[in-house]
Amino acid sequence: MSVSRIGGFISKFSQIFLGKRMIIAKSRKDLERMREVGEIIAEVREVVRAMIEPGITTLELNAVAHKMMNDAGAKPAFLGYQPSGLSPFPFVICASSNEQVVHGFSNDKPLQEGDILSVDMAASYNGFVGDTAMTVAVGEVSDEIRQLIKVTEECLMIGIEQCQPNNRVGDISWAIQQHAEKFGYGIVRDYTGHGIGRSMHESPQIANYGRPGTKEKIRPGYCFAIEPMLNLGTYETITLDDKWTVVTKDGKPSAHCEHTVAVTVDGPEILTLTKEQKAKRNTTKNETASA
Question: Does this model's pTM top 0.70?
């Protein structure tokens, strides 16, 4: 779930030192637990991904995600989540279709051919949180929409590549911005990525635009939720009367994707992958190294 730059939905549990919020580094044991919850939520994401087709409803997706989390012994992190001044979020997933950017409500309206659906979800397990999101085409979509999804996914991976020790948080933001702007997309300003760990929202905030060499220095043990949000048109957004659902101001489609990432001495480790995805990724790395 994205963090608002206006109001800063950073958890009150973040450590504060001399009035400044501190990034919480994770121990080796903490990272083991974050890998566990990351795999759980990744499995849920992939099952939900496979279900998205014309005729399915987002309420059905929400119910499956809820059951899978419960069966795994995990707690849905979004259900009942209540930032200051808002009513509790009433669903397990954020289901945002077409012009909806983030925080969309599930409903009983069947998805239609040509729609796109962004699904954001998080779970807590054994004291730690995993957060992930994807945007999926519903049946056949236009080349324009397919490119929007592809570039958003590319921005995610480009941002993750910057999660290196001694880089700066601004390097992540700048890398995402540089790629998105090649295609003329609107980069959402009002919502950002964030630190993550025992709480869903920790320091720092990680915007999807910025300047290299700025913001906090990145160190091993830090864990981030990187989540580009790109619009086909303007970057501007408005929030609907439910106080949660965010839509593009011009009504054009939006895409959103996210991984929870740990910074290690060897670089970034994506935590929200299934066991199968991790094995495939490791095989690819080994093949590349030996080539």
Answer: yes
